[in-house]
Specification:
Layout lengths: L1 H6 L2 H30 L8 E5 L7 E14 H6 L10 E8 L3 H4 L3 E5 L3 E5 L5 E5 L4 E11 L2 E5 L3 H46 L5 H32 L2 E6 L5 E5 L3 E5 L6 H17 L2 E2 L4 E2 L2 H32 L4 H13 L4 H24 L14 H26 L2 H9 L4 H29 L5 H4 L26 H10 L4 H41 L1
Antiparallel strand pairs: 1-2, 1-5, 2-3, 3-4, 6-7, 6-11, 7-8, 7-9, 9-10, 12-13
Helix pairs in contact: 2-16, 5-6, 8-11, 8-13, 9-11, 10-11, 11-13, 12-13, 13-16, 15-16
């Protein structure tokens, strides 16, 4: 009976279904873990104030957020250097985000729970998210303007919100001038310098040309000086307001409003207030630049760099992959050489990605980029233009890495097209090239898009080759901006995958970086899903368009 059941094939169907279900559960569980650990980081946590008393030491007052907790044996904690009460075999310890790194020297610390007493949650305890030195926790005392007290007591809270908003507006103006206006002038000045150098190399720097260059440079210098004067006035204006707050040991600290990002009373927030802070922090994470060694702020440059690299890679890999597949399937004779090439293409998919990175560094960066510099950018030498890692070489390297996927998928699509369609087109008088261009390739487009989808999924998550050919920890400028020629393929860029590696394993502040690793990983998955869904949508539309032709 059992043997008959096995011969029916039902056990294998159930086994396959179980394996698929288990895989889905694992994937969904992993995504939920990443989402909870990453997205929960942006929810404003209450700030607890307590007294920490270690036997034989002076008690200290501390405030902070409870990050996580665990239980450890007395021997384990003693080995880590903790003082543990006698007679306690298992002790609960808590990771506290105490902030105030400029005062305490560190903003995270493990605390033994039995030594934490007098826990309270004061409503007036302030959380200040700063551009430097991490969070600040303390009790606000007064607001000073140019050294004079302008608000204290009950009037402090309304003045705090108004002056913070004013400082944020001024900071946005300063950043816009520095990144856009001054950045554009510096870009033009550098182009002017290179133009002069090119004329010198060609021995064409005549007095008339020198006069014209000097006039252009004078115009740029005048614009630069005007912007610098405006910046000085903005910096002076933004630096006038200072918040004076008291930390738990009684010291009063001055916090310039120019260094503040967000201020709120975590213990006094209602549900709507917490939701507002949550989406404010989430928006900052997605649309702002990183700060504090990438452990705070946003990751917009990494999102932009990842998407742009994938798009450039897709534009590069698709024509090469399609041309190679069309040649091998439609034109090349099916002999031993063709079969050998096809086997080699399939084997290329199994080559470690770091090997492609080494190839990209040697061929694209040093050989191709170096020769391009010699031929077209000699005025910039010895500083390289294309002879250095950049987004173009990264995209080309990943295009080669994903080329086998596009070739194989396109070949499969060409194989599935009925021979009768080709013969019918030829019988009507079309040439082979016309048949291929007007009939065969459009019908194979869904298969090409399948190859592009697989290439996107593979390339978006690759990190190892990019570390050699273009990705950096922090890029000062995006590869796409308003300066002609707008797209700058020679620039280095940030990438979500490398950002995860950098924040998770190279960060000087591991505790602060850990939740950002989860959040960035979730965002990388979402970016890949969005890119794939866009490609799938295009493929499905093309499939429906040519379905009638297939029949």
């Amino acid at each position: 009976m059992m043997g008959k059941w096995f011969k029916s094939g039902d056990p294998w169907v159930w086994l396959t279904a179980s394996a698929v279900s288990l895989s889905l559960i694992i994937v969904v569980g992993l995504l939920l873990l990443i989402a909870v650990r990453g997205m929960g980081h942006f929810w404003p946590a209450p700030v607890v104030q307590y007294q920490y008393t270690v036997p034989g030491e002076e008690p200290i007052r501390i405030s902070g957020e409870i990050q996580e907790g665990d239980s450890a044996t007395r021997e384990q904690l003693l080995a880590l250097g903790f003082e543990v009460p006698e007679g306690m075999q298992y002790v609960q310890r808590l990771l506290m985000k105490t902030g105030n790194r400029d005062v305490l020297g560190t903003d995270f610390r493990w605390q033994i729970e039995p030594y934490m007493t007098d826990l309270t949650y004061p409503r007036d305890l302030l959380t200040v998210e700063r551009r430097e030195w991490g969070n600040f926790y303390g009790l606000p005392q007064q607001i000073n303007e140019n050294g004079e007290i302008v608000a204290s007591g009950d009037a402090l809270w309304s003045a705090l919100d108004q002056r913070l908003q004013r400082a944020l507006d001024l900071f946005d103006q300063i950043r816009d001038i520095e990144k856009n206006d001054i950045g554009a002038i510096n870009y033009q000045i550098e182009k002017l310098r290179l133009k002069k150098r090119a004329l010198e190399l060609k021995d064409e720097l005549t007095p008339a040309a020198q006069t014209a260059l000097d006039k252009e440079r004078l115009d740029f210098d005048t614009q630069f000086a005007t912007l610098q004067d405006h910046l000085r006035s903005l910096y002076k204006d933004i630096g006038r307001d200072v918040l004076v707050a008291e930390v738990m040991d009684g010291r009063q600290i001055e916090i310039p409003f120019s260094k503040m990002v967000r201020v709120y009373r975590a213990n006094d927030l209602g549900l709507w207030g917490k939701i507002t802070v949550y989406f404010s922090r989430l928006g900052e994470f997605i649309f702002d630049d990183p700060r504090e060694a990438n452990t705070e702020g946003g990751i917009f440059p990494a999102i932009f760099g990842t998407v742009m690299m994938v798009l450039i890679m897709s534009v590069l890999v698709t024509p090469f992959g399609v041309i190679a597949a069309v040649y091998m399937r439609e034109y090349a004779r099916q002999n031993l050489l063709t079969r050998t090439i096809r086997i080699a293409v399939n084997n290329l998919a199994g080559v470690p990605s770091i090997v492609y990175g080494v190839f990209g560094l040697g061929f694209f960066v040093y050989f191709l980029g170096g020769n391009i510099d010699q031929l077209f950018f000699a005025e910039a030498l010895p500083a390289p233009t294309f002879g250095t890692p950049g987004i173009l070489w990264s995209s080309l390297t990943l295009a080669i890495l994903t080329l086998p996927m596009v070739i194989v998928a396109t070949e499969e699509g060409l194989t599935r097209i009925p021979r009768a369609i080709r013969e019918g087109s030829l019988a009507l008088g079309a040439t082979k090239a016309e048949t291929l261009w007007r009939t065969v390739l459009p019908m194979a487009t869904p298969a090409m898009m399948t190859g592009v989808i697989l290439a996107i999924a593979r390339a978006a998550g690759e990190v190892a080759p990019l570390m050699l050919v273009g990705v950096v920890k922090l890029a000062p400028s995006l590869p796409l901006d308003t300066n002609f020629p707008f797209l700058h393929p020679d620039r280095k860029f940030m990438h979500l995958g490398f950002h995860i590696y950098d924040v998770g394993f190279q960060s000087p502040n591991v505790e602060a970086a850990r939740p950002l690793v989860y959040a960035t990983a979730l965002l990388l998955v979402l970016v890949i899903i969005v890119l794939n869904l866009a490609a799938i949508y295009i493929r499905n539309n093309l499939r429906e368009k040519y379905r009638a032709l297939e029949h």
